Amino acid sequence: MAWYREWFGTRYYTLLYGHRDxxxxxxxxxxLLGHWDLPPGARVLDMACGRGRHVQWFVRRxxxxxxxxxxxxxxxxxxxxxxxxxxxVHDMRQPLEGDHYDxxxxxxxxxxxxxDRTDDQRVFQAAFQALRPGGRFVLDFMNTPRVVEAxxxxxxxxxxxxRFTVRxxxxxxxxxxxxxxxxxxxxxxxxxxxAAWTPGELDAMALAAGFQIDDRTDGPVxxxxxxxxxxxxxxxxxxxx
Length: 241
Description:
This protein is α/β, with parallel strands linked by helices. It folds into two domains: 183 residues, Rossmann fold, CATH 3.40.50; 47 residues, Single Sheet (N-terminal domain of TfIIb), CATH 2.20.25. The chain is 31% helix and 34% strand. The chain contains eight helices and eleven strands. The strands form two sheets. The protein has a seven-stranded mixed β-sheet with strand order 3-2-1-4-5-11-10, sandwiched between helices. Strands 6-7-8-9 form a four-stranded antiparallel β-sheet.
C-alpha cells in the first residue's frame, strides 16, 4: 500500500501536523485571491484538499469550491467542516470536468508522493484539462535545494503525550521521513516520501502540460522567490486563453 494511504488517515498525522491552523490556511487563501482577483461565484478546484482547511476560507470568500482528496476519512471530515463545498474522494492524477474551473490549487507539498515520477506530470495535465482557457493554477512546493541543505537528520517531537521520533534523509532523489510513534504501549512506524523536485523541474512539468508561467514566489507571504532564502516554491501558472 502507498505510504500516504497508511499515514494520512491516522490521528497521529493530525496530531503531528495539527499546529498548521486556520490562520495559516486563511493566509494562503488571501495570497491566492490577491493574485487571482476572482469574482464571487467563481469555480475553484482544491487538489489534495485534505480536511478542508483551505476550502473553508475559499467558501467564506464567496467562491464555488470543489475539493478532491484520496483519503476518505479526510473528505468526511472536510464535509463536516464545509458542508457547502463539493467534496469528493478522487485521485488528482485523473481529470475531472474539462474546461470547467476558473482556478485550481495544489498546496502544502501535495505532489511527489508516487514512486512513478510520471504521475506528477499527470497532475499538471489534469489541472490543465480541468481549467477553462485563461484559468489559473498555483502549485505550492518546498524549495527543495534549501530544504535538503538544512535537513535535520533526527528530531524528537512531543504532542499531547505522544512522542514522535522523525528521521530525515535524501535517498534516490526523494526526501524521506521515517516517523516512529510512541503512544503509551503503542509503538508504530510510518513513512513519508516526497520527490525532491527542483524549481527548474517543476517549471518544466508546467510547460510540458501547456501552462504559461506567470510568477514564482515564496509563501504564504507575497514575496518574490529567492532560491537561497525562500522556504517555499510557489509556481503561478495560467492556461492560455
